[in-house]
Write a structure and sequence with these properties.
single chain; mainly alpha; 2 strands; 69% helix; 2% strand
């Protein structure tokens, strides 16, 4: 019996903290800011498990397709939420970030196995998609109806993280070192380090640099799938939008 946590258990832990984080975003006056701080491992953990799944899935095409379908449906739902609630609509779409991340590493993987003349094409496509993803994270905004729009959720944090997880797959120590270095690069370059201190609440709000909180969970993973079922396979795809809509509705009526 392997010690540690399996894939299903890690997902369940991440789901609980995901709800806490999104509840804080909707009810920040009632929930302490520290709730946002302690949940910084959630999105990176889902991304890390996605990369691990990339190497073990029976069909990368179906996996990628599920992520893109979920991303498109989520974005359509976001547009509807803006039509209903205006600027209080839903902006989150982690599916889009994961779909782009999966597509990027798949392009790199195709390049690795391609003939010499085609390697450059695959690698260039992967690099261009990476640049587009980063731009969507920090500068590029695609407007949609009713004031909604596309801007990559957590992209500046997650796209490089996904690349670290992919290129250093097979060595958790190398992954951890890369994540730790990148976390502190973000801290000092984007958030001003200690000199950028603007109070505890703002520190908690601007805490995406704390990606390194995912590292213990990476080492806790025992490589096992856990209990498998059709319900479990599709649960997150349904739970993610449902809980965001539920929290949004509660925030409007309470």
């Amino acid at each position: 019996m392997k010690i540690g946590l399996n894939r299903a258990q890690l997902k369940n832990i991440a789901l609980i903290f995901m709800v806490l984080d999104n509840a804080w975003l909707r009810f920040s006056t009632s929930i302490p800011s520290a709730a946002h701080l302690v949940t910084r491992f959630v999105a990176p953990l889902f991304a890390w498990l996605m990369v691990d799944g990339f190497f073990h899935t029976k069909s990368r095409g179906r996996y990628c397709g599920r992520l893109w379908i979920a991303a498109i449906l989520m974005q359509l739902g976001n547009v509807i939420s803006f039509a209903i609630w205006g600027d209080r609509g839903i902006t989150d779409n982690i599916f889009l970030t994961l779909a782009l991340g999966f597509s990027i590493i798949w392009l790199f993987e195709r390049g690795k196995g391609a003939e010499k003349g085609k390697k450059t094409v695959w690698f260039l496509a992967a690099i261009l998609l990476t640049v587009l993803s980063i731009l969507l994270s920090v500068a590029l905004y695609i407007p949609l109806p009713f004031g909604s729009g596309i801007m990559l959720e957590g992209g500046l944090e997650l796209i490089p993280f996904i690349l670290f997880a992919y290129f250093f797959h097979g060595s958790k120590w190398k992954q951890a070192a890369a994540v730790l270095i990148y976390s502190f690069v973000l801290f000092f370059t984007l958030y001003g380090g200690i000199g950028g201190w603007q109070g505890f609440d703002m520190f908690c709000m601007n805490a995406d640099w704390m990606t390194f909180l995912v590292i213990p969970f990476m080492f806790l993973y025992n490589g096992r799938e856990g209990k498998k079922s059709v319900f479990g396979k599709w649960f997150f795809y349904a739970f993610y939008p449902i809980h965001l809509w539920a929290l949004a509705i509660l925030s409007m009526v309470l």
